[in-house]
């Protein structure tokens, strides 16, 4: 019901149930083909080295403090 209310507010004419079924079958269905990412992302080793937000923030602070 909340999603239907939001759809009404934004003037979306699609049926919530039909859209839900479509998205359940393909999670990318709601994203237009032209807007879908085709390149790799977050592949730099740093993204696999730091596993928590705190670790990442400490790493970023360490970079900030370096004298370039």
From TrEMBL:
One of its GO terms (cellular component) is glycine cleavage complex. One of its GO terms (biological process) is glycine decarboxylation via glycine cleavage system. Coiled coil: none annotated. InterPro entries: GDC_P. GO terms for molecular function: glycine binding; glycine dehydrogenase (decarboxylating) activity; pyridoxal phosphate binding. PANTHER family: GLYCINE DEHYDROGENASE (DECARBOXYLATING), MITOCHONDRIAL (PTHR11773:SF1), GLYCINE DEHYDROGENASE, DECARBOXYLATING (PTHR11773). This is Glycine dehydrogenase.
């Amino acid at each position: 019901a909340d999603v239907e209310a939001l759809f009404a507010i934004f003037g979306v004419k699609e049926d919530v149930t039909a859209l839900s079924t479509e998205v359940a079958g393909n999670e990318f269905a709601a994203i237009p083909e032209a807007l879908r990412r085709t390149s790799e992302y977050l592949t730099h080793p740093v993204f696999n080295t730091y596993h928590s937000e705190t670790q990442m923030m400490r790493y970023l602070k360490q970079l900030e403090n370096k004298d370039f």
